[in-house]
Amino acid sequence: MQIDARLLERTGAAVTNFNTSLPKPQSDLARESLKDPYRFDFLGLTDKAREREVENALIKHVTDFLLELGAGFAFVGRQVLLDVGGDEFFIDLLFYHLKLRCYVVIEIKGSKFKPEHLGQLGFYLTAVDEQIKHPQDGPTIGLLLCTSKNKVVAEYALRNNAQPLGVAEYKLLESLPEEFQTSLPSIEQIERELAGGDSAS
């Protein structure tokens, strides 16, 4: 299954700045903990799904999501509230990495990567470091999941950022080409056939 999913090719492939923002060997372990792209085909969503739909489906299938994230990730919460100076902010997904001994903030964007996305994610990392992180925990890591990215743009956006951040794509079920959609039976047709088969037996 992992060979079919090209796990080896995806492991450590996310665009990150860990080599400059984390000390060794933590930077190597953190880089190897991220993939690109993440395969969310177990959600049963098409590539037209919105951010909140993806987030809801990931929580519903949290066991499968943890398997796709890889060893060491523990789920902490979704829409985690951060109160900063009386203003409320909500983290999409918060994890704790048992081997790295640090929090991992995951933000989901239902669009192509834009450099300004890192500003929001960096703000969340600062807030988690100030409000949630224990003094013995490592620096909080941020992972931005988007539908697509220009790798060079992502590298530029990360280059001078001091916070440990990564950018990776996620892949949902690909929509069927239109010529195949019309040739497949509808749910109603399948139900009628099944009902007809039951009455004949």
Question: Could you walk me through the main structural features you see in this protein, from its secondary elements to its overall organization?
Answer:
This protein has nine helices and seven strands; from the N terminus they run αβααβααβββαβαβαα. The longest helix has 15 residues, at about 115-130. Strands 1, 2, 3, 4, 5, 6 and 7 form a seven-stranded mixed sheet that branches. It has helices at about 5-10, 20, 25-35, 50-60, 60-70, 115-130, 150-160, 180, 185-200, and strands at about 15, 40, 75-85, 85-95, 100-110, 140-150, 165-170. About 40% of the residues lie in helices and about 25% in strands. The radius of gyration is 20 Å and the shape is globular. With about 200 residues, the chain is an alpha/beta fold. The model is unreliable at about 1-5 (pLDDT under 50).
Low-confidence stretches: 1-5
Query: What is the correct CATH architecture?
Result: 3-Layer(aba) Sandwich
Radius of gyration: 20 Å
Structural class: alpha/beta
Question: Helices, strands, pairings?
Answer:
Blueprint: H1 7-10, E1 15-16, H2 18-21, H3 26-33, E2 38-39, H4 51-60, H5 62-69, E3 73-84, E4 87-97, E5 102-112, H6 117-131, E6 141-148, H7 151-159, E7 165-171, H8 178-181, H9 187-200
Parallel strand pairs: 2-7, 5-6, 6-7
Antiparallel strand pairs: 1-7, 3-4, 4-5
Give a short synopsis of this structure.
With 201 residues, the chain is of the alpha/beta class. It has helices spanning 7-10, 18-21, 26-33, 51-60, 62-69, 117-131, 151-159, 178-181, 187-200; strands at 15-16, 38-39, 73-84, 87-97, 102-112, 141-148, 165-171. The protein has a single domain, classed as Trna Endonuclease, Chain: A, domain 1, CATH 3.40.1350.
